[in-house]
């Protein structure tokens, strides 16, 4: 029987449909528009759902991210801000 202690157990990779990319931005933001194109493209390619959140509609998001938008979260953890690198995002979602 294999040793299943935490030191030897590998965490199972999440399947694409179990992941979530969140793009946090605001209207009339050219960097946000650019990020939306990249996030939409990469998520479609790898089959990961994504959502768009508007800091002008959420005071908590505004307070937390207003100097960094656009911000990309993967499964709730910050992945990047300002500029979204297509290859880096794809790698983060497929590893």
TrEMBL record:
It holds the Pfam family Glrx-like. Signal peptide: none annotated. InterPro entries: Glutaredoxin-like (IPR008554), Glutaredoxin-like_YDR286C (IPR052565), Thioredoxin-like_sf (IPR036249). Gene3D superfamilies: Glutaredoxin. This is Glutaredoxin. It comes from Streptomyces regalis.
């Amino acid at each position: 029987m294999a040793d299943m202690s935490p030191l030897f157990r590998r965490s199972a990779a999440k399947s694409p449909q179990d992941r979530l990319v969140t793009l946090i931005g605001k209207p009339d933001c050219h960097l946000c528009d650019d990020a939306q194109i990249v996030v939409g493209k990469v998520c479609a390619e790898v089959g990961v759902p994504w959502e768009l959140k508007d800091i002008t509609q959420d005071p908590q998001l505004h307070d937390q991210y207003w100097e960094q938008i656009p911000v990309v979260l993967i499964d709730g953890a910050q992945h990047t801000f300002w500029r979204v690198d297509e290859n880096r995002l794809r790698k983060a979602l497929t590893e």
